[in-house]
Amino acid sequence: MNRKLIAGNWKMNGSLAANDALVKAMLADIGVPAADVALCAPAPYLAQLQSLLTGSPIAWGAQDVSAHDKGAYTGEVSVDMLKDFGCRYCLVGHSERRQYHGETDELVAAKAQRALAGGITPVVCVGETLAERESGDTELVVRRQLAAVIHAVGHCISEIVVAYEPVWAIGTGRTATPEQAQQVHAVLRAQLAAATTHPKRVRILYGGSMNAANAASLLAQPDIDGGLIGGASLKAADFLQIVAAAA
Ligand code: PGA
């Protein structure tokens, strides 16, 4: 069985002072976690996380990465830059990037490929909107999103992390039931099995209003290998309870 991964996604939240307090509160109580733990911060704070978290049980990562190597791409951050600040992970294709920044399946796949090539583990987010779920297209959508990444990275797919995040559950307090989530995770696992001989090596996280109260039942599902945590990662106690639930 995979060691679970609990990753926080701070989104566009935080400040030097707030991050310092939050991270120190987490480090004070985390002990020796039974799961891998990571925090994905806005790019300007990666240096701060590097200095606070080096040598600790918490890894860190970014929330996006450029599909390009370097050059005239104003505002973008390259994988080598993330490496300079010790990032182990990088979110790719979060639904907020797809929705508000027009990221296509192809762009998301190119970003995942770039991250992998640069030695950073992409956490590739997939998930359906409420309208897509209601019209019975959930499987179609998540399979299409993952297929683009499989096409781009080939057998290296066993080195990514996938995060299933139903868009209707993100930040809404409306969580997928463990059964609903497991059903989609099983679909993704089967798709991975057709692409790699190591489908079980790929951790498939659930994200979308995961919290201290519902984490244990979600994480008990056979194909749920961890969580991608938004709101609850901004509170040390809540986040650590989710980490404990992954034991
Ligand atoms: P949430 O966000 O936990 O606040 O729903 C999850 C995410 O968007 O990664």
Task: State the gist of this model.
By secondary structure, the chain is of the alpha/beta class. 40% of the residues lie in helices and 15% in strands.
Structure description:
With 247 residues, this protein is an alpha/beta fold. The chain has a single domain, classed as TIM Barrel. 40% of the residues lie in helices and 15% in strands. The protein is built from ten helices and eight strands. It has an eight-stranded parallel β-barrel, surrounded by five helices. It is globular and about 45 Å long. The structure holds 2-phosphoglycolic acid (PGA). 2-phosphoglycolic acid binds next to strand 8.
What brief labels describe this structure?
247 residues, alpha/beta, TIM Barrel, 8-stranded parallel β-barrel, 10 helices, 8 strands, binds 2-phosphoglycolic acid
Largest sheet: 8 strands, parallel, barrel
Residue ranges: pLDDT <50 for 5 or more in a row?
none
% residues in beta strands: 15-25%
Enumerate how many helices there are, as a single number: 10
Question: How is the largest sheet built, in terms of strand order?
Answer: 1-2-3-4-5-6-7-8
Mean pLDDT score, rounded? 97
The CATH topology name reads TIM Barrel
Morphology call = globular
Number of domains: 1
Approximate helicity band: 40-55%
Structural class: alpha/beta
What's the CATH C level?
A: Alpha Beta
* Hetero groups: 2-phosphoglycolic acid
User: What is the number of strand segments?
Assistant: 8
